[in-house]
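Box 3.1. Reading complex inputs
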Amino acid sequence: MKKFVLGLLCALAPLLSAQAPPSQEVVLSASAGSKLGIALPYPRISGLPEATVTTEFQQVLSKDLEEAGPFAVIQKDLPGATDPASYKAWAETGTEWLLTTTINRSAGGDLEVMIQVMDVVAGQAKNVKPVVSKRYTGRDGALRRIAHKISDDLMARLTGEQGVASTRVVFVKEAGRGIKEIYQVDRDGANPFPVTNFKSLTISPTVAPDGRLAYVTYKGGAPEIWGQRVAGGPQVKLYPPAGKIQGHCFCPSWSPDGRRLALVQGDRRGNTDIVVLDVASGRVRQLTDSNCINTDPSWNPAGTQLAFTSDREGGPQVFLMGDDGSNVRRLTREGTYNGSPAWSPSGSMIAYVSRFEGKFDLFVYKLGEGKSYQITTGIASSESPSWSPDERRIVFTSGSRGGMQLYTTDLSGNTLRKLINLDGCQSPKWTRSR
Amino acid sequence: MRFVRNLIPLAVVFTLGVGVACKKPAPAPAEPTTPAAAPAPATNDADAQKRADEDAARRKAEAEAEAARKAAAAAEMARLAKFKNDAEAALKDINFEFDKSDIREVDKAKLQAIADFLKANPDAKIQIAGNCDERGTVEYNLALGERRAHAAQNYLTGLGVAEARLSSISYGKEKPKVQGHDDESWLINRNCQFTLQ
C-alpha cells in the first residue's frame, strides 16, 4: 500500500524540499505499483442543465484527474449508490476514493459545488470521516474553473503536491503573413484566446510568477521588449529606454522573483550578449561580453544562475553562469547544435533541444547525475520546451515544417498529448499564474 | 472667374493673344472677380480690349506654368523611376551558408553594386534585414539574423558607405521569404534583404 506513495515521495524529494511543505498529511492508501482508483458518480444538480454539467464539469474533472498522474478514473457508475452500504460494490469496481458532488445554481447565477470523497475500502470496515469535504462557489461560467480546482485539491490531498489542472500556457501563434501574436490557452486545451493584438510580429513571451507578461514586438519597426510593470496592468514598453541604443533586444526571461528581466542585447558588431534589466530602476547589467552569440537566458528557481545558448566554442551549445556573469561552464557535450535551455522548477534538471539530421528532439539534463536523457524521438521536429509547474511534464512545439502545434509529454516520453489542435504555434510557456 | 472668361468672345482673345505674349502675367487680384462686372465690355471698347488683353496674358502664363509643372513632374517621375529601377537592380538579396554569417564570394559583386548605388544616390538610406531558414531555434536564429545583417553592414562600410546610411534588423526565422521546406527554399530564406528607408 505504501510503496507507491513512498516511491513517489522519494522521486519528488528534491522537489518537495524546494517547495513549501504540504499543509496536510499525505494519504497513504494507494495500491502498490498502481494508480489510485477514483469514481465520479454523476453529480446531483439543481438549477442548471445536465448538458452543461456534463461538458463543463464532469468531463473536465475526469480528464484533469486522469492527466494528473496518480489517479485512475473508474468509468463505471452505480446509479444512486453513494451510501456506506454500497462501498463494497464500489470497491469491486476498483474504486478506492468515491467522489460525490452536488451542484446548485441560484436564480441569480451563483454556483455552489460541494464535494465529498469517501475511502470506500476503509469505509467498509468502520465509519470513517471523508478524505475530503469541501465547498466551492462562483458565478455562472465558473464550473470549469471549479472542476480544475477540485482536481488540484485532490492531487494535493493524495500526494502533498500541488496539481496543475488550473494552470495555463502562454504561446505565440501565427495570425497572418509576418504577423504573430501572444495567445494563451488553459492546460486542458480550453479557452484559447489572443493576449496581444498588435497586428505585427510579436514573439518570445515570458511570464512572471504573478502573471506579468513580457515579450518582443516589432510593432514599432525594430524589436522592443514590451510587457506589464504591474500585474493585470497595461502592456507598455519595458526596454530599451528612449534614446540611442546600438543593436537590438530579444528573448526576455523573467527572474523567479519577477523583478528582473534577463534579455539579449545585440552590439554594433552583430554579437549578442545576455544582460539583466532591473525593471523598476531600469539599471542594466551585462553578463556576457564575447565575440559571439549568447541567447536564450533561463533562470534557475533561486534566481542565482542562468542557463543560456552560446556559439563561443563553435556551434550552439548550452552553458551555465552565475547571475553576475561569473563561473561560465558548458553543459551540453554531445551533438553539434543544442539550445533552448529551460531550467526545471525544482532546479534539478534542464530541458533543451538537440538537433540531429535536421530535426530537433527534447532532452533533459539531470544536474545531479551529470547526464542527459532523450525525451522525444520522432519524425517530427520538437522544439521550445517549457516545464509544467509540478515538473511532471514538458510543453513544447512539434510537427512538420510550418505546421508546429503544442504538445505535452511526461519525462519518459510515453504519454505524449496534443494540447490543442492549432497550427503555427511556437515558444510555449507554462505558468500557474492566471 | 470662369464665368467672366466665358463672356469674352473667343475671337478677341485670338487676335490679341500674340501681342501680349511677352507681357508679364498680371496677378489675379487685378481681375474682376464678380459676375456683376461682366457687362462692362459692352459699354467701353477700350476697357474691353484691355481686359481681354490681360485675360489672355494670364491664361497664357497659366498654361506655361502648367506645362512647366508637368515637365518638372515628368522629370521627377523619370528620376524616381530611374532611382527605383536602379534600386531594384542593385538591392538584391545575398545568401548564406547554413548557420554561417560570412559573406560568400559570389555575393561580393552584389554588395559592390549596392555600395555603388548608394554612392550614386547620396540621399538614399537602406535597411538590412537578416533572415534565417526554419531549421534552427527561434531564439538562436534571431541572433544569427542579427549577425548576418551586421556582416553585410560591415562589408558595405568597408566599401566606403557611411554607417549612418545603413540600419539593420533581424527577423530570425520569423519572416521566411518563401514557404518551401527544401534545400532550395532554405538557401533563399538564409539571406540579407536590402530595402530603401
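In summary: Chain A is about 15% helix and 40% strand.
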